[in-house]
């Protein structure tokens, strides 16, 4: 049979493999384990009959679901801890000089602190959080991988977020939180990157939820300087744009507007007078309630 019509550009093939390795690395926290998962994923792909592969409309989605399912199975193994040491040549693309550099960059990008925190989650919570928050997979896709319903996966991801916040946060009073949040706003509106970076923990992380509806950053950003740069870029002053401090999830957060429309809602996790995590909601679907006529408790504060 002639399979020339199935040919895929090499750049697309490498991008696909890189994406799958990123998914597996976030899920398992080990380059060697990620490489093993992707090898098994492709073995399953080529284990399908020609007709079965032909019926798969989006191979990349099938591969991502399969890799996620394999990762979830490995997370549930009682001896999974033995798999977290990468060992010699254990990173993604081991044995390839360009791949080794890609592996090093990936491991620097993904904060070890955050990966350790992910280890505190149950396998289902970690899968739901990583696949939804980090890689922006749809609830239906996550549900297929995790083996739960869509609403259950949403709850798992929400629970994971709460546990990650609780793990890192040390109690701050509402007044302390409000002061830091308003100083963050001041740094953003005055475009003072140095001040903004000083308000963040060195290993701060920012998550950007675009929901596939806007061109947001697809993966979290780590490190105070990188987070500060990302926020400054996102919130750079333009005509008709404003940034206000107001209540977000019960504590002072930031709300960015373009004209009268809320374009981003930012919540801050603050510990010891500095920001540990930033959660930026840009998904228009999640901002619908913010774009209803404002109630008294939603009135913004410019201070």
Would you give an account of this structure?
- The protein has helices at residues 10-28, 31-47, 50-54, 59-75, 97-109, 112-118, 123-134, 139-146, 150-168, 174-189, 193-198, 224-235; strands spanning 200-209, 221-222, 241-248, 251-258, 261-271, 274-281.
- A hairpin with a 2-residue loop joins strand 4 (251-258) and strand 5 (261-271).
- The chain is globular.
- The protein has three domains: 1-109, no CATH class; 111-168, Arc Repressor Mutant, subunit A (Orthogonal Bundle); 171-298, Roll (Nuclear Transport Factor 2, Chain: A).
- With 303 residues, the protein is α+β, with helices and mostly antiparallel strands.
For the record, the CATH class of the largest domain is Alpha Beta
Widest beta sheet: strand line-up? 2-1-6-5-4-3
- Counting helices, strands and paired strands, the structural category is alpha+beta
As a whole number of angstroms, the C-alpha radius of gyration is: 21 Å
**CATH domain topology of the largest domain:** Nuclear Transport Factor 2, Chain: A
Distance between the termini: 70 Å
What characterizes the major β-sheet? 6 strands, mixed
**What portion of the residues fall into strands of 2 or more residues?**
15-25%
Instruction: Report the count of strand segments.
Output: 6
The arrangement of helices and strands along the chain is: HHHHHHHHHHHEEHEEEE
Unreliable runs: 1-5, 82-99
The tally of helices reads: 12
CATH architecture of the largest domain: Roll
Total number of domains:
3
Helix content, binned percent? 40-55%
The overall average pLDDT, rounded, is 79
Overall 3D form: globular
InterPro entries: ECF_Sigma-70_Domain, NTF2-like_dom_sf, RNA_pol_sigma_r3/r4-like, WH-like_DNA-bd_sf
Protein name: RNA polymerase sigma factor
GO molecular function, one term: sigma factor activity
Organism: Streptomyces bingchenggensis (strain BCW-1)
